[in-house]
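Reviewer has doubts. Consider these tokens.
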Amino acid sequence: MSEPPHDSDDAFGAFEPALFTDLYQLTMLQSYEAEGMAARAVFSLFVRTLPAERNYLIAAGLEDALAYLEVLRFGPTARGYLRMMPQFSNEFVDALADFRFTGDVYAVPEGTPVFAGEPLLEIEAPIGEAQVVETYLLNQVTFQTLIASKGARSVLAARGKPVIDFGTRRAHGTDAALKAARALHIVGFNATSNVEAGRRYGLAMTGTMAHSYVQAHASEREAFAAFAAQYRGTVLLVDTYDTEQGVRRAVALATGPDAGVDLSAVRLDSGDLDALSRRARAILDEAGLPDVGIVVSGGLDEHAIAALEHAGAPISAYAVGTRVSTSADAPTLDSVYKLTAYAGVGRVKLSPNKLTMPGRKQVFRRFVDGVADRDVIAREGEAIDGEPLLRSVMRDGRRLPDETRSLAAIREYASDQLRRLPPALRSIERVEPYAVTVGAGLVADSAEAEEAASRAGLAD
């Protein structure tokens, strides 16, 4: 499991989870309390539309969301800072010392394929508690879902070959790099280059060498020999100067008079990876090294991997970085966190292209011969055929023990759920959208809530 969000940064001071929020969450919280508005509310977190490049999303980030909700406190540092802000009264700030999240959470498990309009999680809590957590929940669930959804495509494109996370240095900040490594592991990545992610999440780690290591030595041969002497299962980066010559130098270390190097693979990081991998494979095979693999990196994503696989390039593993850790082709999700009920009454928005559905909901997935056939978004309690996707994961501010899963279990679940998607949806090309409909009960509730909202909008 991930650690609670209490990491510190010596350069900038301790991270204050309660202050990782938009200012208007706190101004609304103060106003709710001043007005005595403490009834229970329901908020729903969902993605309005899928990016044009996606047939599905993979839900992720729930673990961090629950960890945050469990430990959320306004400690002395947070309260001291808010006390200096003119918007907040001393009475309000003093009362924050007793703030706790006491609500319930319903969510789809991490690793679940989801589609537009379907709740990834729903919060039911006193309205102030449910409101103030919006920013953090959206931040964590949106980003991790974005990266998991991108990474799953690379795993599928690789057709069972290992895929490695090399994206740390190009990720948008330290937290993003760590959470990306976790999200990519969930969807099937085999290892990460990020040592802290390995420590924090128990991920397998891998790494070779940089071109600078080769350049720093008097010759490529000297660099290879020195590096190989240090490590078993050595992977040598062979394209600093001349790629074919680099492969031959690696071969010489493994087969020459002073052989003894445990050469696991050579790595190609630039150029025509298809042609170079074929030439490298031929050189390795001619030298009697059929078990030495070829790892490729350098600007890869699912499309590049699919092209190399389609061409039959003799590649053993793919290391992907920038394009996956930033989801370069679809770097944002149209995710929202919207009020759907307050004090037992359904609430909706009527804004153009931003309609919402009232109340707590459930999503039912129907399978035909073990393959997902369609989803129905329904009113909670509505009788619909299919498997319900949202589970009760937190009650009264404490996560339920039965809903605490290991990262290994989440990864296995995600793999199983991806296999149960229709084959066409698993394509990296855009296909006919998956069928998602709305249950009759929720349609009726929506009509009633929209009429009430229209009257409210016209009232003085």
